[in-house]
Design a protein that fits this description.
The chain is an alpha+beta fold and 520 residues long. Helices cover 50% and strands 12% of the residues. The strands form 4 sheets. It has a 3-stranded antiparallel β-sheet with strand order 1-2-3. A 3-stranded antiparallel β-sheet has the order 6-7-8. A two-stranded antiparallel ribbon has the order 4-5. Mean pLDDT is 76; it is low at 84-90, 312-324, 500-511 and 515-520.
Length: 520
């Protein structure tokens, strides 16, 4: 019955070098086409194909094997009447069962959970139309359009959620298409258009709110610790809450680096964080700053020591002789008479202060005052380094912050990347991490009420740090590196709604972490 059908070769794209052999019926009406599953070089098909005999000529590489496949395909694809038999492979396969198998192959518990949620949504829709399952053959553009409309009319779903759900289903369809390019005669998602709405501006702590967060007195020790943990998030380059929960003592290392305060650098033994992001597995190196030291010293129980280090009487009495204490107090009062609010003609900026040009007295006063603060910063960081090193030696794999239970995560690799992989692949450990994040969010809400900060969220720490970087004069590339982003497109979503206010110029990172502005 070959006289009613013929073999043709189609390329998916005009630029492709290979094509696929199809069996096609003759005539203009009711023409049918069926893939034979045979891939050949398109230029060799044109050169060696014998259209009259419907076979390859002898010059075609492996022509005998190809001709045998074509003959077998003819026998399997042609009815006695000469009509093409419709393929049943793939299109009659259960879409839900295929999806279940794909879910089992997903190693990350977070991604697996998303697929489970969307699949349940699809099953709920199928029940509403009195179906329990659906085959690939039934995934028509009409069905997908109806599903899309159902999602859009669900008041519990936002536009972003609807788009995310549809894209996830489309990913499964495309995965099947890669395995069998001929599963769908027509792309089921060809008519779907994703709605784009202006994303709401992310919560960013204002300067007033940040100062309130850092200085408000909180009597409850548990909530005070949560406040310090959130401050740690902000100044640890906008650390994600999942990384905060999973931070272990063995990720803290020590190196001698310059420590910046008011445009003055001093060499100190400074701790730094070397950890791997849980979400993206991106390595991150974050230097310790004033507020990170504060949070860690309080975590290890050094409350009194920290209060002493920050007490003005302690600073001045310890760092200066008694007869110089009065001189320092007078210097601070006198300096206020020299400081200007903004740069004007014949002014200059000296170590962060705007003063008149050649004002030697103001320069001497600034050096005098900052020397005491620098000594204090140096002592804080050195004390933090020595104390944390002892604590790290005793419990290297324990969590830094008491959000998760150490006993639930025992016997896991010391390597941070391997540790994060184990947690992400374990359903039990992943659920414990999610529960810990939920508890932290609830307690953070109470901290927000005490500090008079509305709608405070853990992820706002990353956006607040981004705003601080912008204020400090950091470039987009600098921000991308500090946030651990792999592309500038992601960073752009962070800075799109931020206000640019260059407060410090260059050397932004030290300014963000070590500035005393919030405490003065």
């Amino acid at each position: 019955m070959k006289n009613q059908t013929y073999i043709t070769c189609y390329k998916k794209k005009a630029t492709d070098t290979d094509g696929y052999l199809f069996l096609q019926s003759k005539g203009r009406k009711n023409r049918k086409k069926k893939a034979l599953g045979i891939r050949v070089a398109y230029d060799k098909f044109i050169k060696y194909w014998n259209d009259k005999e419907q076979c390859f000529k002898s010059g075609m590489p492996q022509y005998k094997l190809l001709n045998e496949k074509i003959e077998k395909a003819f026998e399997e694809s042609i009815k006695d009447t000469g009509e093409i038999i419709e393929s049943s492979k793939g299109i009659k396969q259960s879409f839900l069962k295929y999806w279940d198998r794909q879910i089992e192959l997903i190693p990350n518990q977070g991604s697996k959970g998303k697929h489970v949620v969307v699949k349940k949504k699809l099953e709920t829709y199928l029940q509403s139309i009195k179906k329990t399952d659906i085959n690939f053959a039934d995934l028509t553009p009409e069905f997908i359009a109806d599903l899309h409309y159902q999602f859009k009319t669900d008041r519990a779903l936002t536009t972003s959620s609807v788009n995310s759900y549809m894209k996830l289903i489309n990913n499964i369809v495309r995965r099947k298409t890669k395995e069998d390019p001929y599963t769908f005669p027509v792309n089921p998602f060809a008519t779907i258009k994703y709605e784009r709405k202006t994303q709401p501006q992310r919560k960013v702590l204002t300067e007033k709110e940040l100062k309130s967060l850092l200085t408000t007195k909180i009597d409850d020790p548990e909530l005070e610790l949560v406040r310090d943990m959130y401050a740690f998030q902000i100044f640890a380059s906008g650390m994600r809450v999942s990384d905060l929960c999973l931070l272990r003592w063995n990720t803290i290392n020590f190196d001698t680096k310059p420590f910046d305060i008011k445009d003055t650098e001093v060499e100190v033994s400074e701790p730094e964080l070397d950890y791997v992001m849980y979400k993206t597995r991106t390595p991150v190196n974050t230097p310790f700053t004033y507020y990170l030291c504060k949070a860690l010293l309080k975590v290890v129980g050094e409350h009194k020591r920290w209060e002493a280090l920050n007490d003005p009487d302690y600073i001045y009495t310890r760092q200066w002789e008694r007869e110089k204490r009065m001189k320092l107090s007078v210097a601070e009062r006198e300096l206020n008479n020299h400081i200007l609010n903004k740069a004007e003609p014949h002014t200059t900026i000296y170590k962060g202060y705007v003063i008149k040009q050649d004002d030697k007295q103001a320069i001497e006063l600034i050096d005098l005052i900052l020397e005491a603060k620098i000594d204090n910063i140096r002592e804080i960081t050195q004390w933090t380094a020595s104390h944390i090193s002892r604590h790290k030696a005793q419990t290297p794999t324990d969590f830094v912050f008491p959000i998760l239970k150490n006993e639930d995560f025992k016997d896991i690799s010391d390597n941070d990347l391997a540790f994060k992989d184990v947690v992400s692949k374990s359903e039990e450990l992943h659920h414990k991490l999610e529960y810990g994040k939920k508890i932290f969010r609830r307690k953070l809400d109470k901290v927000g009420e005490l500090c008079n900060i509305k709608d405070i969220m853990p992820h706002a720490a990353r956006h607040t740090f981004t705003q601080l970087m912008i204020n400090a004069g950091a470039s987009t590339h600098n921000i991308m590196e500090e946030l651990g982003h792999t592309t500038l497109n992601v960073t752009d979503s962070y800075i799109r709604h931020k206000k640019f206010k260059n407060k410090y110029g260059e050397n932004f990172l030290g300014k963000v972490g070590n500035t005393m502005d919030y405490l003065e």
